Please model this.
Amino acid sequence: MAKYDNSFTDELRARLSLVDVIGRRVPLTKKGQNYWGCCPFHNEKTPSFSVNEEKGFYHCFGCGEHGDIISFTMKVNNMDFKSAITELANMAGMKLPDYKPKSQEQIDAEESYLSIYENAAKIYSEKLFSPDGEHALSYIRGRGFTDDMIKKYRIGYAPKNNIIANKFVNIKQDKLLTTGLCRSGDYGLYDFFRDKLMFPIFNVHGQIVAFSGRSLDGSEPKYINTTDTEMFHKRQTIFGFNFARDSIHRQNRSIVVEGQIDAIQMQCNGFGETVAPLGTALTEDHIALLCKSNRNIIFCFDGDGAGQKAAARACGIVLPFLRDTSDVKFAFVTGGKDPDEVLKTSGKVGMDKIIDSATPLIDFLWNMVNQKFLISTPGGRSQAEKFLKSEIDKITDFEFKNEVIQEYNKRKFQQWHGWKKSKLDTIKIDLPSADNLTKNTLIYIVNTYPQIASQYADFLGELNISFDENINSDVNLSEKAAEKYIKSLELNTNKQNLQNEKKQLLSDMLKNGKNDELTQRIQKIDDEIKSIDIELESMIMD
Model:
């Protein structure tokens, strides 16, 4: 049977989370490094169905079913291979390629590509420790890199001459050009990387598929990368991920920094779970790759304006990947420093303090909205509301999304509208039968359903109650019941106030005599009380 190109199915597996795909059909709970649930292929009450995200397979210890993301989609939906691939491609937003096997020519081209890059890395490594690379070696050692670190990450030096074009003269020009290591000029091939400190870029299998070259003379851009090729896509590759995978699982998180040197220094100084994008802003593909390993991510950026913008972009990108088990935070290195400098001056202890003080995503987004918009004005609050809603709408986990909405509604009610502060000078009124049950019920409603509290803010602000109190009660109301409770309380309070006003007016009439104005007001009060009674009765019948 013909098969799809392996690179396409591999990319499907890389882009899609096995836990997410299976989790749509099977409720999963994380225990250790695996996720567990009741097997969809046989009846059971005790979960024996295990999903391993890192290895990309599921296994049922009850019935023996075993497979990957493609076989699961086929079996659970009773689909053939092509239909399963089509469904998964739609999930991943990928265009379905022609249905054909990989040719021997393609296989040979990939092997040739990897071979050229492996040999190029050896050449660059040798040149770093040669007289030609003396200034590059001095630079990297000056950045705190030991020789062991240099060898582990296979750092090298691309000299000023055309060493690759000259060394690979026996390789066909089109193959060499395909790698991006050389380009064609008027006088033949010339090296793309010249006088650069070379950082190999590895794929998830540990194979070198590209290079990132750093300038040594202060010229910009500071880093240049291999142009995109059949084997390398910058937007889908994370620097240091092949070294960080095991640590990400052990530490139950990943740390994302801005540059290659920062990532290496972090990995070598106790933060093995650190990675970095390749001289480009984070992409959805980067986040998808990280989330396949772990959904707990700490973004660690510089504290300047550029770092804040990078964090804001990362926040928007990561929102669709959030789940109720996610723990995403933002840490900032201030004082014009970067992680490399912090590690040199303060060591791991100093970096730990920065990482430990990271701001949770929910708080980061809230702070960003409050800084971005003038929430002290109605127009500013309206703009902030629209922006916040557009960001929250990116969350795809429905239950978690609702919890986030509830949290932000509570914050908007308590902080934006400032109803408690604005009512401090208001005359307090006593609640009818203001016992502890009434008080506790209102506190429960305000803290559980802030959107209802916001709707009745004026009324609640008049009550002599501190809604910041912690209560221990058995109150448990649905949203509809909670709104009816506050509405009925407001109506009864208004009714009581009207009755008190009527008594006062009747007393004035006894003292001063009857007049048309007082009579009309009493009649109006009677009409309002009657209207309240009708509304209360309809609420009871509803």
